[in-house]
Amino acid sequence: MTGSYTYQYPRPGLTVDAVIVADGRRPEVLLIKRKNDPFAGSWALPGGFVDENETLDHAAARELEEETGLSAEQGLMTQVGAFGDPGRDPRGWCVSVAYAALVPANREVQGADDADEAKQWWPLDQLPKPLAFDHKLILRTAFRHLAGNPGPSSATVTALKQAAEALEGSWQQQ
Q: Which terms does the record give in the GO molecular function aspect (predicted)?
């Protein structure tokens, strides 16, 4: 059956965000500096809008590569949550599906697409303020998820848990 379907209900924009943590002696998270509004000049997670007929996994990998030059190997990133609180994006109603991954330390990144700068790995205990959108909430959720999975070093697990606690209750845009 083919045809056109319309609904009387509003639909949100759909985006993806990627939390990439370097597993090293001092764990760091990858952030990009936004080139465009909203939040131009602010630090944010790599991410963007999902294209029509694109899977969420592919969109997350595409946005990560476009904005940082990092290639997401198959199965590297896992979903950690969906975020759709009203007002999270000043452009309108947007829901973001967040992904997270641990990568080896010393990965080179480069800015591209709508990222002004993407060469910033930030220590988990020294995140810039403020972050764009609701990215503190996404980071907190991703850090908890990564800390609970097998794989990270004990130093990284400790740093992830401490960073998640530090972000507790402070996730709203400042």
A: hydrolase activity
